[in-house]
Task: inverse folding
């Protein structure tokens, strides 16, 4: 493994850590929220992210201990979690993310009916996502959930794709819920995956063996209310016995 990387064994999993250990421990305070509140108010935190307040390793490890309780196909537990706190590595990833962001936004935006809540929300979402893209290199922590195996190969079936991602995405979402319960804000992003191979090389991730599935930004938030989002009504999207 390249100089500057080490494998940190924690309980039942290994973290490929690209940043230095935290100098000081940080107490975790679990907010008094029930499961329903956590599930319905875990929002993408971008503009309200506290870019200046560090997040301790201890707190991240608590969230990861929750994450690995998630289901995984055949109980394989083939997940790996990359924590990135090193400023130079965050700078490189931030640059790649921005390149991907601007390419993505140049392809146009979806159009919605006038009464569709997604249309009303779109300007706010774009503004927020743009803000995070511009400051990606400043986020306190990047967490990249990885899973053993690759499905971006010729002849791979949907069964194999579902099995691979189904064995990591529940754990990644559990990580975000655990972070919410501990006063942290997160945002799910995937645009760095356009440069997955370059990021793998930067961080020492074995590209042919492990698939990066997301980049979750993590930090404390600056406050304010978190509430359920307006969504499409259930009637047009729920089907019983037939489509």
Result:
């Amino acid at each position: 493994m390249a100089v500057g990387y080490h494998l940190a064994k924690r309980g039942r999993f290994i973290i490929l850590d690209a940043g230095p250990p935290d100098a000081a421990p940080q107490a975790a305070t679990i907010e008094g929220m029930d499961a329903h509140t956590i599930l319905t108010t875990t929002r993408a935190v971008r503009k309200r992210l506290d870019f200046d307040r560090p997040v301790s390793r201890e707190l991240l490890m608590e969230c990861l201990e929750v994450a690995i309780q998630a289901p995984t196909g055949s109980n394989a537990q083939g997940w790996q979690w990359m924590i990135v706190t090193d400023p130079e590595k965050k700078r490189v990833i931030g640059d790649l993310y921005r390149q991907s962001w601007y390419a993505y936004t140049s392809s146009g935006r979806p159009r919605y009916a006038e009464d569709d809540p997604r249309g009303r929300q779109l300007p706010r979402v774009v503004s927020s996502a743009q803000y995070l893209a511009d400051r990606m290199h400043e986020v306190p922590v990047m967490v990249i959930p990885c899973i053993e195996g690759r499905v971006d190969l010729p002849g791979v079936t949907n069964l194999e794709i579902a099995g691979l991602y189904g064995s990591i995405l529940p754990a990644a979402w559990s990580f975000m819920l655990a972070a919410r319960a501990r006063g942290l804000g997160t945002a799910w992003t995937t645009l760095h995956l356009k440069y997955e191979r370059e990021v793998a090389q930067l961080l020492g991730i074995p590209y042919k063996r492990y698939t990066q599935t997301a980049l979750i930004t993590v930090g404390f938030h600056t406050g304010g209310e978190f509430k359920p989002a307006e969504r499409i009504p259930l009637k047009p999207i729920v089907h019983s016995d037939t489509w």
Remarks:
- Strands lie at 6-10, 13-17, 79-84, 141-148, 184-189, 210-212, 215-220.
- The helical segments are 35-41, 57-67, 87-105, 117-134, 158-165, 169-181, 196-203.
